[in-house]
């Protein structure tokens, strides 16, 4: 029983970060129909920001988080302007952007690899290796903090989407781009903002990831598959779905990791992706068409 | 506003409507220069004669390397180009073919040149089964599922001790003299490349190819036109896996070892996609043009920057630029403009 | 009498495809109901899309109250006073009826004023009031069309363009759409209607426009258009055309 709770807690603790990693991806897909395969590579870029800030100046990664988010959001605006603005008008847009972001992912990995090499890195603030103990059960501080910060950020995002005027416009654009435009929403502006927020979220996630997981540029492929399974299970474009899916899969992966073997824990995500595509391609919260 | 009714008479309107429709319809032109690919093939078959005059191993390697990619890219094209299902997971079939024939070579000493068709068949069967699952979804979902497939295969191969796990498997080296050691593989790949290109031509113009092209435009319409889209797609998947698997089989022996981090990497898949896009997805000559271009560009990168991470950056950059500015590829763009040289019109 | 909207000889098409509209013109008179008819594929929807900025105009001009609209985006054109309800109704399926109406007033800055107007609309359309908290995607076709048309009234535009509001609706509901349209017109909104049922459309409008092959063939009082024998033959199915 104690072990059961222990594994559950470890799974939940990681779920928060994974949800944050996936939420930007989901947002960007929802608003712009861009399946951003470069998202994980940008998370890794964010992780490097936090890593070097800690290594060089001893800045805590959680303190660095807003800065990493801002830097990445800026990069997001640039990328959108350079790569996606024109594409938005093309016919096979959705498929096109997958390949385009795939190319971008390779470019980011190549650049990061050239600068920082493919050695494994991890930011190591004190709490990253520390834990709280409740009788027999331990809760790793790093993962707990990262999870809490993630949930706060996702909560903020949800409030922003629900109540702000921009959030209204983003939701409207997500549901029906043409209609939003016909009702006076500047959808191009909305797209830039949403894309910047999405990539900013990658930066924020990166800062947290930097002390939760070890990372290196080529790690992105594993994360692509992992995050895609989260986002597809949650129903592409649904933030709530992403959060629920992240926690469920993370907990399942934790149990698989403990009872079946560590290598199979990542496999959970990939197999889940297959199973979801097989039985419910629209995901938990998604709607049928569009993607399929 | 004064009402001015200047209606032309009805016959004139109907005639104009017909003329208008015809103006909008596109004309296809049909000229082909079959002598060109045949000449290229003849030259390539004769190329090893150069070995009598010196060591041209590097040249042979480049041609062989390109030919291997022609096989795979043209194979990929059946699914990605004709049917419109872009797969980033085809490295899996490369590995399946490579490992199947490689294990036979390592255990029983049977050359992969003999077992390659079987390797292709095995890859096709795997493709058929996988396609049953993943071809249920299209567009981005399909692409994602293909990446997941690759990740799953990588974990499996990395942990499968029978085939050496992550360390891989060493294969025996043939005992031909250095000058001639490449020849069996050289001819094998040239032959496979020619066969694949010919096969894709036949497939494109068969009932299957027609169905695939129809469903790539609009699956629902194709279905209501009586095409069993499900079956067609799966067959396309199997066929494309066949060629990739066959190439993998021979590649393993040529390389003299098998290792997941050589066979099961996204870069292999990416190259296939890139070649088809750069050359022209869905055209017959496209994958060939793309393979030549990409191998050329790659050599250039390696020569100027060394085999570094920047290489990956370069591949990504070429891909992004191609997608943004020549989404139809070299062959496709030229054809669209009506400027495709006859020697490249193989469709 | 000055025109409210003047469309002169425009050429437009999709992407870099062929010109679908080639020499279409249109004069919109303030306060009147205009009905555009023409066979399938004539370019009627394309004309409305070109006016509202969803398609790039390659040649010709669209002028609203003396101001050139060419090259503006749909959201900018809405702010100039032209509201478009496309054939597919443009609702937000996962927003409630009330939220959809609020989106109709997205360009209004004042949130309290917006709430007031939304309530006024709900008062005028009891079917919408009943379903104020239902998701738009779960309503019937007629209800959705009512919502789409009612939504245009929130910002009180100069011109409302309706693309086949009767599409797929039962005859009785079609009548309702026409009465909503009449109501709009009585409030001083100029209506530009595309209608497949030419007879019904022309009977309910002041001005008739015939579009074919991407060109405007006829423009004139609806009654005259309706009476013209050649029109009868070509577009109304009065006699069989060859
Ligand atoms: N999104 C599009 N992309 C390319 N061509 C299009 C598109 N929409 C319409 N067309 C073409 O434009 C032409 C005119 O279409 P349009 O929708 O304007 O006709 P319409 O008069 O509204 O017909 P209907 O009465 O059937 O609605 C048609 O030939 C059609 O094929
Ligand atoms: Mg229409």
TrEMBL record, chain A:
User: What does the record list as GO biological process?
Assistant: amino acid transport
User: What is this entry's stated membrane topology?
Assistant: Multi-pass membrane protein
Matching entries from Pfam families are given as: BPD_transp_2 (PF02653)
Q: Which GO terms describe its molecular function?
A: transmembrane transporter activity
Q: What is its main location?
A: membrane
Q: Which InterPro entries match?
A: ABC_transp_permease, BCAA_transport_permease
Any GO CC annotation of this UniProt entry:
plasma membrane
> What is the designated name of this protein?
Amino acid/amide ABC transporter membrane protein 1 (HAAT family)
Compartments in which it is found? Cell membrane
Q: Which UniProt keywords apply?
A: Amino-acid transport, Cell membrane, Membrane, Transmembrane, Transmembrane helix, Transport
Q: What protein family does this chain belong to?
A: Belongs to the binding-protein-dependent transport system permease family. LivHM subfamily.
Annotated TM spans: 7-31, 37-54, 61-84, 96-116, 144-161, 192-216, 223-256, 262-279
CDD domains hit by this protein:
TM_PBP1_LivH_like (cd06582)
Automatic annotation (TrEMBL), chain B:
The terms describing its cellular component in GO are: plasma membrane
Main localization of the protein described in the UniProt heading: membrane
Q: Topology in the membrane?
A: Multi-pass membrane protein
Kindly give the InterPro entries that the UniProt entry links to this protein.
ABC_transp_permease, LivM-like
Q: Record keywords: Glycoprotein included?
A: no
Cleaved signal peptide residues: none
> Which Pfam families does the entry mention?
BPD_transp_2
Please list every transmembrane segment annotated in the UniProt record, as residue ranges: 33-52, 58-79, 91-110, 116-135, 142-163, 183-201, 231-251, 257-277, 284-306, 312-335
One Gene Ontology MF term: branched-chain amino acid transmembrane transporter activity
Among its keywords, does the record have Magnesium? no
Task: Print the keywords alphabetically.
Answer: Cell membrane, Membrane, Transmembrane, Transmembrane helix
Question: What's the protein name?
Answer: Amino acid/amide ABC transporter membrane protein 2 (HAAT family)
What subcellular compartments does it reside in? Cell membrane
UniProtKB/TrEMBL annotation, chain C:
Provide this UniProt record's keywords sorted from A to Z: Amino-acid transport, ATP-binding, Nucleotide-binding, Transport
Q: Which Pfam families match?
A: ABC_tran
In terms of domain of life, where is this protein from? Bacteria
Residues annotated as domain ABC transporter: 5-238
- Which SMART domains does the annotation name? AAA (SM00382)
Q: Which GO terms describe its biological process?
A: L-amino acid transport
What are this entry's molecular-function GO terms?
Answer: ATP binding; ATP hydrolysis activity; branched-chain amino acid transmembrane transporter activity
User: Per the similarity annotation, which family is this?
Assistant: Belongs to the ABC transporter superfamily.
List the protein's name.
Answer: Branched-chain amino acid transport system ATP-binding protein
| Species whose genome carries this gene | Rhizobium subbaraonis
């Amino acid at each position: 029983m104690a072990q059961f709770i222990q594994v559950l807690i470890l799974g939940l603790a990681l779920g928060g970060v994974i949800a944050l990693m996936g939420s930007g991806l989901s947002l960007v897909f929802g608003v712009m129909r861009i399946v951003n395969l470069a998202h994980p590579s940008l998370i890794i870029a964010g992780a490097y920001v936090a890593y070097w800030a800690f290594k060089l100046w001893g800045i805590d990664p959680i303190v660095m988080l807003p800065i990493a988010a801002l830097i990445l959001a800026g990069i997001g605006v640039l990328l959108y302007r350079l790569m996606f603005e024109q594409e938005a008008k093309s016919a096979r847009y959705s498929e096109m952007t997958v390949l385009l972001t795939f190319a971008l992912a390779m470019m980011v990995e190549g650049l990061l690899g050239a600068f920082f090499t493919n050695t494994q890195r991890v930011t190591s603030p004190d709490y990253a290796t520390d834990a709280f103990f409740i009788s027999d059960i331990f809760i790793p501080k790093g993962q707990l903090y990262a999870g809490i910060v993630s949930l706060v950020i996702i909560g903020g995002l949800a409030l922003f989407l629900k109540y702000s005027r921009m959030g209204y416009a983003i939701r409207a654009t997500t549901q029906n781009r043409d209609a939003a435009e016909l009702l006076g929403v500047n959808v191009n502006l909305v797209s830039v903002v949403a894309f910047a927020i999405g990539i900013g979220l990658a930066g924020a996630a990166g800062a947290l990831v930097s002390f939760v997981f070890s990372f290196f540029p080529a790690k992105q492929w594993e994360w692509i598959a992992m995050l895609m399974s989260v986002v597809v299970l949650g129903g592409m474009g649904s933030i709530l779905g992403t959060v629920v899916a992240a926690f469920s899969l993370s907990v399942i992966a934790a149990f698989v990791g403990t009872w079946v073997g560590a290598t199979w824990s990542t496999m959970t995500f990939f197999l889940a992706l297959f199973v979801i595509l097989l039985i419910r391609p629209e995901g938990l919260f998604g709607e049928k068409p569009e993607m399929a | 506003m004064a009402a001015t009714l200047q209606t032309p008479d009805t016959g004139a309107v109907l005639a104009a409507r017909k003329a208008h429709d015809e103006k909008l319809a596109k004309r296809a032109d049909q000229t082909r220069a079959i002598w060109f690919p045949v000449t290229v093939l003849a030259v390539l078959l004769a190329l090893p004669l150069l070995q009598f005059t010196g060591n041209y191993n590097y040249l042979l390697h480049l041609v062989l390397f390109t030919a291997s990619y022609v096989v795979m890219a043209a194979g990929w094209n059946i699914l990605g180009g004709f049917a419109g299902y872009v797969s980033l997971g085809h490295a899996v079939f490369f590995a399946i073919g490579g490992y199947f024939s490689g294990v036979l070579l390592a255990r029983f000493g049977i050359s992969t040149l003999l077992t390659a068709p079987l390797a292709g068949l095995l890859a096709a069967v795997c493709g058929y089964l996988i396609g049953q699952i993943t071809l249920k979804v299209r567009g981005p979902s399909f692409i994602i599922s293909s990446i997941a497939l690759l990740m799953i295969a990588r974990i499996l191969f990395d942990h499968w001790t029978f085939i050496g796990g992550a360390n891989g498997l060493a294969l025996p080296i043939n005992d031909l003299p250095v000058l001639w050691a490449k020849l069996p593989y050289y001819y094998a790949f040239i032959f496979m490349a020619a066969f694949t290109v010919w096969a894709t031509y036949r497939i494109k113009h068969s009932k299957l190819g027609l169905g695939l092209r129809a469903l790539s435009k609009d699956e629902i319409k194709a279905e209501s036109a009586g095409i069993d889209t499900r079956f067609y797609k799966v067959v396309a998947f199997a066929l494309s896996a066949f060629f990739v698997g066959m190439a993998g089989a021979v590649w393993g022996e040529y390389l003299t070892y098998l290792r997941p981090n050589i066979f099961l990497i996204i870069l292999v898949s990416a190259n296939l996609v890139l070649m088809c896009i750069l050359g022209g997805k869905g055209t017959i000559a496209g994958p060939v043009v793309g393979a030549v271009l990409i191998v050329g560009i790659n050599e250039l990168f390696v020569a100027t920057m060394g085999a570094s991470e920047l290489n990956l950056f370069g591949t990504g950059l070429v891909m992004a630029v191609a997608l943004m500015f020549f989404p139809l590829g070299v062959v496709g763009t030229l054809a669209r403009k009506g400027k495709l040289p006859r020697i490249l019109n193989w469709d | 009498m000055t025109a409210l909207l003047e469309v002169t000889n425009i050429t437009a098409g999709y992407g870099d495809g062929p010109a679908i509209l080639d020499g279409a013109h249109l004069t919109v008179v303030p306060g009147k109901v205009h009905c555009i008819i023409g066979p399938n594929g004539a370019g009627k929807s394309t004309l409305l899309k070109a006016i509202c900025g969803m398609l790039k105009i390659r040649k010709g001009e669209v002028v609203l109250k003396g101001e050139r609209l060419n090259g503006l985006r749909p959201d900018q054109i809405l702010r100039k006073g032209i509201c478009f309800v496309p054939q597919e109704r443009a609702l937000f399926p996962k927003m409630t009826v009330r939220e959809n109406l609020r989106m109709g007033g997205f360009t209004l800055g004042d949130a309290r004023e917006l709430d007031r107007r939304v309530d006024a609309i709900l008062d005028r359309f009891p079917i919408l009031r009943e379903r104020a908290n239902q998701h738009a995607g779960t309503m019937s076709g007629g209800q959705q069309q009512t919502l789409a048309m009612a939504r245009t009234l929130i910002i009180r535009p100069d011109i409302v363009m309706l693309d086949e509001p009767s599409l797929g609706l039962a005859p009785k509901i079609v009548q309702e759409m026409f009465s909503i349209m009449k109501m709009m017109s009585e409030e001083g909104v100029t209506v530009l209607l595309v209608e497949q049922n030419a007879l019904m459309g022309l009977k309910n409008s002041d001005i008739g426009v015939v579009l074919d092959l991407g060109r405007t063939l006829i423009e004139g009082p609806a009654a005259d258009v309706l009476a013209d024998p050649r029109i009868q033959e070509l577009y109304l199915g009065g006699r069989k055309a060859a």
